[in-house]
Design a protein that fits this description.
The protein is an alpha/beta fold.
């Protein structure tokens, strides 16, 4: 049986990595530290085996600390490096004390001060270094940036790109027709895949249902197909929407029309292939 991989989780210790974006009033459910012992419990509750930990801050120090995570529960790390600098040297720094594979890089492009950060020439040079390193790049973008992401994917056909959270179709101010066109435009590039993650995190508990998410998941399935989709809980942010277990149940319902092998692909097979997991 294929190892079941949750392709998108976060870990943080606020003493070393403060996570200032967490509002203790509106995000009380995640206003604490989350370690591998918490992750182990979440994986058990959702029927998953291991997870891909994804950076939460554009911080090299955070990535170094996350790389020392327990490989029994962490299958790999999507880290942060400054793509405008020496990418190989930074990856080497992260890898020095690593206990888990460094499987990809991510930058919080959706909140970068430069709205066209993805299109910068120096970023493009960094992406070429990633390709030479055999790594991947996670897009964290919004609907209005999907066109930029598609352009970048086309300019780097030898680099694998992973779209986080389906491009935020429920983010504040998202335009559904723009999102749909963007999803199809990005999926037209064969070096792209997408995560079924982060949809419930923006809603209060009880304010969402699997049925409500069916149109966007149907669009993702139409654009990418099950062979290019990865399940991710977006834990612990999933706690904001009622918990990772509820999201996992919703995903099961949303994928009910797939074959057993197709569901296994979404729940681990694609992640293992994309992130080159042993």
């Amino acid at each position: 049986m294929t190892e079941r991989i949750d392709a998108h989780v976060h870990l943080w210790n606020r003493a070393t990595d403060p996570q200032d974006w967490i509002d203790p009033m509106t995000m009380a459910a995640i206003a604490r530290d989350f370690g591998t012992h918490d992750l182990r419990e979440m994986l058990r509750a959702t029927g998953m085996d291991r997870a891909i930990v994804v950076q939460a801050s554009n911080s090299l120090g955070e990535s170094v600390r996350l790389a020392a995570s327990d490989p029994a529960v962490v299958a790999g790390l999507v880290c942060w490096v400054d793509l405008t600098g020496d990418v190989a040297a930074q990856l080497a720094t992260i890898g020095e004390g690593a206990r888990v594979p460094i499987v990809g890089v991510r930058h919080l492009a959706h909140i970068d001060p430069d709205p066209e950060w993805l299109l910068r020439r120096d970023v493009g040079r960094g992406l070429k270094q990633l390709e030479a390193h055999g790594s991947t790049f996670d897009f964290v973008v919004r609907d209005w940036q999907l066109g930029q992401a598609a352009r970048v994917a086309g300019e780097h056909p030898g680099l694998r790109f992973v779209l986080d959270h389906l491009g935020g179709p429920y983010a504040e101010g998202a335009d559904r027709p723009v999102w749909e066109a963007g999803i199809h435009g990005l999926a037209a590039h064969p070096n792209t895949v997408a995560k079924l993650s982060g949809l419930s995190s923006g809603f209060r508990p009880g304010a969402w249902s699997a049925e409500a998410f069916e149109p966007v998941v149907a669009t993702a399935l139409e654009a990418f197909g099950p062979g290019r989709l990865l399940y991710g809980s977006d834990w612990p942010l999933a706690e904001l929407g009622g918990g990772a277990a509820l999201w996992r149940e919703a995903v099961d319902a949303l994928l009910a029309g797939l074959s057993d092998s197709e569901r296994e692909d979404v729940l681990g097979g694609v992640a293992a292939e994309v992130y080159s997991l042993a």
